[in-house]
UniProtKB/TrEMBL annotation:
Protein name: CBS domain-containing protein
Protein source organism: Pyrobaculum aerophilum
Domain CBS: 7-63, 70-126
CDD domains attached to this UniProt entry: CBS_pair_arch
Presence of the UniProt keyword Transmembrane helix in the record: no
């Protein structure tokens, strides 16, 4: 299965220079674990829950820009890559989220939870004999 099928499209983004406090507020309101920071419409970096916790523990002011704590060397994967490759990348880099790109452009975000949920749903479908019904519905829902 291609990672673009499971990725959450149109990820929540914010300007790279918002404050850490604003980033945390967006993440709380949107119930997300990763905020994609952009600069001039391009991927700048990401801020995760772990980044915010680390900043608090280090006494960094919440008024500082989120870019100060952002991960800049973002691990990305193309939407047409396999789910197994995504899982391997996560393990190799010790991350719980990947930014998904399509043709070099921001496409979505996928988390470990997204992958596990998809695998479990497919397992249930196979066991229940409903796989032929689920796959076309998912593709249609994802716009593929």
């Amino acid at each position: 299965m291609k990672i673009g099928v499971i990725a959450r499209r149109h990820p929540i983004t914010a300007p790279y220079n918002i404050s850490i406090k604003e980033a945390a507020s967006i993440m709380t309101k949107k119930r997300i674990g990763l905020l994609v920071l952009v600069r001039e419409g391009r991927l700048f970096g990401v801020v995760s829950e772990r980044d915010i916790i680390r900043a608090v523990a280090q006494g960094i002011s919440p008024e500082e820009p989120a870019s100060l704590i952002a991960t800049r060397g973002v691990v990305t994967i193309e939407a047409d890559e396999d789910v197994i490759k995504a899982a391997k990348l996560m393990r190799e880099h010790g991350v719980r989220h990947l930014v998904v790109t399509k043709g070099g452009e921001l496409y979505g975000v996928v988390s470990v939870r997204d992958i596990v949920n998809e695998v479990l749903q497919l397992k249930q479908a196979v066991e229940g004999g409903a796989l032929d019904e689920i796959v076309p519905i998912r593709r249609q829902r994802r716009g593929l």
